[in-house]
Amino acid sequence: MQNKLLKFCLSLALIAPFASAARYTVFVGTYTDKGSAGIYAYRFDSWSGKLTPIGLAAGTDNPSFLALSANHKNLYVVNENPDPKGPFKGAVSAYSIDPKTAKLTLINRLPSRGNAPCHLSLDHSGRMLMVANYYSGTVTAYPINPNGSIGASTFFQELKGSGPDKDRQDVPHAHEAMVSPDNRFLIVPDLGSDKLWVYSIDPAAAQLHPATPPFASVRAGFGPRHIAFHPNGRWAYSIAELAGQVTAFRYDAPSGSLTEFQSISALAPDFKAHNQSAEIQIHPNGRFLYASNRGPDTISLFMIDPATGKLTASERVSSGGKEPRNFEIDPTGTYVLAANQVSGDIVTFRIDQKTGRLTPTGDKVQLSQPVDIVFLPEQ
């Protein structure tokens, strides 16, 4: 009897990480200058970790980053059309989602009021959309209409400043528009000025207002790219593209201010070659932080101290391809999907729930220049 009970307990321990296993539709944004045609859809089974191609969900130009509406009915997309010296060509598009076929139908498309829009996000109420334009260093906001369409832009601002790297930091380069967990502030990492700009959010008017203070600075030449908030809402972590560093901040919810308390390298101590760090994500359990590096082509794992928020480097694993521009943790916290832009593949890793370590599952799908991944729960 004791042996049977032991076996039963062991079986429960084995399936515990998969207790919330589910099926998802995965949408992947791409660059379309080397064979891709737009946004692609896949089925993802969080029990097996298998990613199965469905096909082209929508044909469109350079749909690099995607944002899913809270009601799961719409997908919003930046069309990252770069023209650093000419007229603005960037756009933002709204699509309706067919949950049965994963096909996307264009609702409308508007100018992003900038060149190379590289990131977008919705406020948590779903009433407001915010876009970061990289080349022009501008931030734009729009209302979302009841039918899911994007309304006329209600906010536009050009960022100011520069950094010491004359090739990459001669002008501002807004690289992300990230909404805080409390839905009160927008954080815009600016690679060009070494600042993270902070705006208070007014969803009813679809307006942004500079916070006090209006920005947090990182060390000169770092080039902040993306930011991730801890589930506890008290800490935030930014990945620096140029320096390959992760900067940890204390987040003050009333003011939106960010106060640095740690900076730690995402690279191996002996790595001296060219690198551009890219994505940063925190596991849903709040214990693990991951960052990708385009140079050694690795994903770095950090342990997060639950009392202080400080990071300790744990391991660096190959992304399984060339230039991991983006990766995403599946909603169950069981797998990481790494989008390798240059090698043109999406590689799946299983997450060790105790240590956070990543192990390739052997599952890989080919796709020209994948850039961003979002998960849609299947109905």
Identify the notable features of this structure and list them briefly:
379 residues; mainly beta; globular
Walk me through this protein's architecture.
By secondary structure, this protein is mainly beta. Helix content is 4%, strand content 51%. It is built from 1 helix and 28 strands. A 4-stranded antiparallel beta sheet has the order 3-2-1-28, with no helix packed on it. Strands 4-5-6-7 form a 4-stranded antiparallel beta sheet, with no helix packed on it. It has a 4-stranded antiparallel beta sheet with strand order 8-9-10-11, with no helix packed on it. β2 and β3 form a beta hairpin. The longest helix is centred in the first third of the chain and has 14 residues. The radius of gyration is 20 Å and the shape is globular. The N terminus is likely disordered.
Map the helices and strands.
Elements: H1 2-15, E1 23-30, E2 38-45, E3 50-59, E4 63-68, E5 74-79, E6 91-97, E7 104-111, E8 117-122, E9 128-133, E10 138-143, E11 155-158, E12 178-179, E13 185-190, E14 195-202, E15 207-217, E16 224-229, E17 235-240, E18 245-251, E19 258-265, E20 276-282, E21 288-294, E22 298-304, E23 311-318, E24 324-329, E25 335-340, E26 345-351, E27 358-366, E28 370-377
Antiparallel strand pairs: 1-2, 1-28, 2-3, 4-5, 5-6, 6-7, 8-9, 9-10, 10-11, 12-13, 13-14, 14-15, 16-17, 17-18, 18-19, 20-21, 21-22, 22-23, 24-25, 25-26, 26-27
